Amino acid sequence: MENIGKILNLIWLSEIEAKLYLTILELWKSWISSISKKSEIKRTTIYPHILSLLKKDVIKRTIKWKRTFYIAQDPKSFVNILDEKKKNFLEKLPILESLYSKNSPNPSLEFYEDKEDLRNLYKKIWWSWMTIYTFISPLEFYKHFSEEFDRSLWFLEKKAWWKTKTLTKNYSFSKEYIKNNPFSQIKLLPKDFELDVDIIVLWNSIIMISFSPIYAIVIKNKTLADFHRNLHNYFWNILK
Predict the structure, then answer these.
(1) Are the C-beta atoms of residues 228 and 206 closer than 8 Å to each other?
(2) Cα–Cα separations (whole angstroms), residue 46 to 1, 54, 76
(3) What is the mean pLDDT of residues 112-121?
(4) Predicted local confidence at residue 77, as pLDDT
(5) What residue spans define the domains of the chain?
(6) How far are the Cα atoms of 108, 134, 157, 164, 167 from residue 215, in angstroms, in the given order?
């Protein structure tokens, strides 16, 4: 119980709120005096935290026999609450990133040379941002990563609130790649456009991934990211 309380505390409940929620969950339906006794928290201390839990919609209140009872909401409701909080945060993220970039004089660089590190980088990208602009070379990707791993990425995208806008190399495999990525918006580059790397543009970062040899460079700079995003949008708008 103590470990669960710490998890709830880290997520969004205060230490006392987490303890009270777990107490009410264990008791199922109870009134203040029994909650106080079970949790070993004074009644005078409990009241403001109970009101906070009601406001956060993790417990509910009912009246029976002129007595007020408190009931814990299904713990699965936390998932929806946290998803909504994440969505709201991501909507504000561009503003925060803009302030960060404005006050950050020099671009930062990160290097990845291990295949497992690149795998984790791909997952981080698909979890972390609102809109992802990509130049993709699928066959080069599949030389090092399985189709199952690629499928796991678009499952992440399915759970998210954003879309990936992908420009992919135009060759025979392209139609199969588009079919296997139903949640992405994909357009084919001109057939004479050579592309043997992955370039991924986020809000304030560019990720350039080479497959021969395999490594990645992450450049965090808003100005460079804006240029590559504009370049991507230019191709996107002229292609069918």
Answers:
(1) yes
(2) 19, 12, 24
(3) 85
(4) 74
(5) 2-75, 95-238
(6) 17, 17, 23, 22, 21
Residue the block writes with tokens 């009246």: 63
Q: Whole-model pTM?
A: 0.55
C-alpha span between 109 and 121 (Å, rounded): 14
Does the pLDDT of residue 201 top 90, yes or no? Answer: yes
Instruction: Supply the CATH classification number for the domain 95-238.
Output: 3.30.870.10
Q: Are 37 and 20 in contact (CB under 8 A)?
A: no
Using an 8 Å Cβ cutoff, are 112 and 121 in contact? yes
**Tokens 């070379």 -> residue:** 137
Tell me the C-alpha distance between 188 and 207, whole Å. Answer: 20
Class of CATH domain 2-75: mainly alpha
Task: Output the CA torsion sign for 225, 229, 230, 235.
Answer: positive
Tokens at 192, concatenated: 């004479």
Residues 6+ apart with CB under 8 A from 133: 165, 200, 201, 202, 228, 229, 232, 233
Residues sharing a CB contact under 8 Å with residue 121, sequence separation 6 or more, in sequence order: 112, 207, 216, 218
**Helices 15-27 & 2-11 angle (0-180, nearest 10):** 130
Strand partners, 108: 220
